[in-house]
Design goal:
alpha/beta, Rossmann fold, GMP Synthetase, Chain A, domain 3, 3 domains, four-stranded mixed β-sheet, 19 helices, 25 strands, 21% strand
Length: 588
């Protein structure tokens, strides 16, 4: 297999024609693509692209949520040699306009009425761009009806041809187009697939944005293995679908695991008898797992107790995820070791990995048989990793991008003459296992000259049931402070249980009880930190950071620059020690 066109041919030839391949919930029923239905849809859409004048090398933008048709358009582009430019389904018109114009896309395929209106506004001053609807009900220009294009003249791409142009989510600046070739994608499929026991018996859920390369490469691997993929439109809708789909494999980002952990522990705390049983089960599980983490075997009595704990206690935890999950993969950001240990103890291995859009994306990932908690695992075959003298992680291999679209200077800065991609992340290697410290550009340098990595601090804060998100502040300031957003669901439950009163969501955020609960969480985290990393003050913001507000990316990464600019007044007040209603000084 050399190209994504070969992947399509493998999928349609290796699976029985009537096997359910892709599906999505449609009311109480399912909208399903069998292998034959998927093949016919892809070939028909390729015919429509060809009739619309799309030829090899043309860019086709896709503005669509997760659904089976995403890959119909994707593989149709590969049949005619076009370059897919995926757009996050939550982007505003200004960003859509920038990406479509920068990529030189001539066709913008859209799903959903709201996105259709955004697309029309985005292309109002781009006369060379046609906007067409993926659905017939959008009132947009539809493709002409065509019969299945069985005789479509297929363009045969070469491995080094451009397959997709993926724009980075822009945590540190304007999005750049990452040029990924067929070879980039295929190298990941062929090197990662043999590392895991994935078969055509597996049931998987796809809910991270397909416009991000992480979920996309996983979908390619699942398609190659013949798994049935159930699509969920967005991360927020994944929870209710878990007991319906009952997946055996799943991938997500750390924030999802953090929230699941907080929800589980919050429920346990509310029921004293359950809390005692759960505490016993966790203690038993930890004894067994600590031996495993050290490469040893726990004594037989401990293993027998652990078997009882799994049957009586942890089985109910796993039922929240459908009860059939064999393992999950976490990527997109570092996963706190505390969270990884918890899920490993309850019987759900979370395999942490690491990568970038620029590396298609996997640079390192843990394995089931060698899951070193706290690390992001080992490099896949054919991928090299080394750490530069300043601590920056460098990677090289067939997965590394061709470069940034129309940005030769940025490309030269990212990939050196020897082919090493400079990731911008700080880390270390231990027996081949990669450990991430922080982003090179996000290190906080305090006024006293101390380097502080914010992400480990933020991850620890996010394990509190009363904190939804946290942002460490301190670059060029004398000490570290934090902006935190409240977990209103758990705080409402606490207020009700302790009869604090009905404060309403706005009142809860600024309530002294909330401040005291969060202050205790901060102090607990501070107790584990060296003095120069400790949080001296924090401010509770009224609402969570969201994608729509532009404060986090579609993959739930913090946009630190945006947050720092938006909350400049609150940050300044923390350092001026002006006491506000929503502030709390730990030195008081």
């Amino acid at each position: 297999m050399e190209t994504l066109q070969d992947l399509f041919q493998h999928v349609v030839s290796a699976n029985p024609p009537h096997r359910e391949l892709l599906r999505i919930r449609a009311g109480r029923d399912w909208r399903v693509y069998t292998t034959r239905g998927f093949e016919e849809a892809v070939r028909a859409y390729a015919g429509r692209l060809a009739q619309a004048g799309i030829t090899a090398g043309d860019r086709v933008a896709l503005f669509c949520e997760n659904r089976p048709e995403w890959h119909v358009v994707d593989f149709a582009c590969h049949l005619v040699g076009a370059v897919l430019v995926p757009l996050y389904p939550t982007l505003p018109a200004s960003v859509v306009s920038h990406i479509v114009a920068d990529a030189g896309a001539t066709l913008l395929v859209v799903s959903g009425k709201e996105r259709a209106q955004i697309a029309l506004r985005a292309t109002a001053e781009l006369p060379g761009v046609r906007v067409v609807g993926l659905d017939r009900t959008l009132g947009l220009e539809p493709f002409a009806d065509l019969a299945v294009a069985a005789s479509l003249p297929v363009h045969r791409p070469r491995p080094d041809d451009l397959a997709s142009l993926i724009y980075t989510s822009g945590t540190t600046g304007e999005p750049k187009g990452v040029m990924l070739t067929h070879r980039n994608f295929v190298s990941q499929i062929t090197s990662i697939r043999p590392l895991y026991p994935i078969t055509d018996k597996d049931e998987v859920m796809s809910f991270l944005p397909l416009s991000h390369v992480f979920q996309r490469i996983l979908d390619y691997i699942f398609l190659y293995a013949g798994c049935r993929i159930t699509y969920v439109e967005a991360v927020e809708k994944a929870g209710p679908m878990l007991p319906i789909v009952r997946p055996t494999i799943m991938a997500s980002v750390p924030r999802v695991y953090e929230r699941a952990y907080v929800q589980i522990m919050s429920r346990v705390v509310k029921e004293p008898r359950l809390a005692r049983l759960f505490e016993w089960a966790m203690a038993v599980g930890r004894r067994v797992k600590q031996a495993e983490w050290a490469g040893q075997r726990a004594p037989l009595p401990a293993r027998l107790q652990y078997a009882v704990a799994r049957r009586l206690v942890f089985r109910k935890v796993l039922e929240r995820f459908g009860g059939r999950l064999r393992f999950t993969v976490s990527g997109g950001a570092p996963l706190a070791r505390k969270i990884a240990e918890f899920f490993d103890i309850v019987g759900l291995p979370v395999l942490n990995g690491y990568g970038l859009t620029e590396s298609s994306p996997v640079i390192a990932v843990n394995r089931l048989e060698s899951n070193r908690l706290g690390s992001v695992g080992l490099a896949p075959p054919d991928v090299e990793i080394k750490v530069a003298p300043d601590g920056e992680i460098l990677a090289r291999g067939p997965n590394i991008m061709r470069g940034y679209w129309n940005k030769p200077e940025a490309t030269a800065a990212a990939i050196d003459a020897d082919g090493w991609l400079h990731t911008g992340d700080i880390g270390r290697l231990d027996d081949g296992y990669l450990f991430i410290t922080d982003r090179k550009k996000e290190l906080l340098v305090t006024g006293g000259g101390k380097n502080v990595a914010p992400q480990p601090i933020e991850m620890q804060l996010a394990t509190s049931p009363y904190i939804a998100q946290a942002v460490a502040i301190g670059d060029n300031f004398p000490y570290i402070t934090a902006l935190v957003t409240p977990n209103l669901e758990n705080l409402r439950a606490y207020f009700e249980e302790h009869k604090v009163g009905d404060a309403g969501d706005d009142g809860i955020a600024s309530h002294p009880t909330t401040e005291a609960l969060i202050a205790q969480a901060v102090k607990d985290v501070n107790a584990q930190l060296p003095s120069y990393e400790r949080i001296r003050r924090f401010t509770v913001l009224p609402t969570e950071f969201t994608v729509d507000s532009g404060e986090i990316t579609p993959t739930l990464k913090l946009k630190r620059k945006v947050i720092a600019e938006r909350y400049q007044r609150q940050i300044e007040e923390m350092y001026l020690k002006v006491h506000r209603t929503t502030g709390y000084d730990l030195d008081d």
